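Notes from the pairing session

We agreed to fold both candidates in a single pass and log them together. This is the raw record for the first candidate, unedited. Please don't reformat it; downstream parsing expects exactly this layout.

Candidate A
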Amino acid sequence: MDDFYFSDPPGQWTLPVAKAGLPIIAASAFATLVVAILGFQVTAVIGLLWTFAVVGFFRDPDRAIPAGDDLIVSPADGKVIVVSPGSINPYTKAEAQKISIFMSVFNVHVNRIPSSGKITAVRYHPGRFVPADRETASLRNEQNAVFLATEKGASLCVVQVAGLIARRIICHVQAGDRIKRGQRFGLICFGSRLDLYLPAEAQLDVRVGDRVSAGTSILARLN
């Protein structure tokens, strides 16, 4: 039987929600209550449905993370739209293998660390908001790059890329932090993508069209 572990303490709520979403959920619920008291029934029903939709977007389920020092797990939920072994990391200009994951508004948007190690740098870049499923989004959109060194010394780069309607990238880690595979490190609001740059020698275990889950789906293995 394969071994699994929790990189973060399990949530205390039946329906775990990311903390970043609580103010938005509260504001939506309050506005719905106000229009309901004022007697605007149709608007109140719409507001209630919207509140449930926001709760669904910010859901943050616990995940059992597969154990194994050589494993690279998915940093996001969504659909794999790019697998490119012969890519160049635009930040380091080094040869890399690129995996891009598109997150629709229906996916869990909490991002997780792909491999245990240490954060070496975090770089934020403002930009545009073209649809995240376009390849140009990797170069033109607002993004936040997280660089990490694995426990065996390999260098990885995870880039949070904003989407068409995303206006907020959240990142909770900073240079010097020690991190575990599958640990939560941030989220992107309302549709986006993640680009993962791996060493050229990594053995990929994913292909375009695959559906993956953050922290649980194995994308690659390091030699």
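Candidate B (folded immediately after A)
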Amino acid sequence: MTRAPTGRWLELDSWERLETYEFFRVYEQPLTNVCSSVDVGDTLGYCKSKGLSFFLASWFLALKAASSVENFRMRLRGSNVFVHDRLYLSTTVLRDDESFGFCHLPMVGDFATFTAFGTRAIEAAHARELPLDILEGRDDAIYGTTLPWIRLTGITHAHRIPARSSVPKIVFGKYEEHMEKTMMPVAVEVHHALCDGIHIARFYQALETMLSAPETHLVP
């Protein structure tokens, strides 16, 4: 996680969303949250058959899906917008004593490399090797958490630093069988100055497409 973020400044004057951006940027509470369920049956079955981690697989695909939507890579910088070239994932890991640490994972090209990074990062979180605020000041991230005990229908998040509120947050809930499908709730929070419903929909569409073809995206 030492690689410096790269990207570009968005040309606001020619941005088709400039009016919407200015409208929502000054809201006291500009965050919007959507929760919808996706079919994880193909990916879950594939992971079981190949001995792969469903936890890492689902986050790998979610990070790829988020990275594929440009608006999910946009971050507020004062009154300007920076578009990151690549993102990393910062997600929670539950320890044996029921406390949690953060697992930090970069977006890489293949799942095998991601798994290698992930396995080590999970071990580091369990061993309390890094403080929770190790990535303080960076916003080239997707924040994630997993609530595998709950049939999730919505969620709100804690917020401390306004400048960081433009980082999207993704939450996985408990997957369950429903009408011969394995459905998992996925909640997404974004800053409305940067993302609209259509961009959230594109994330879900990309995620569902990848989940339905694990043999393409999760090559060991």
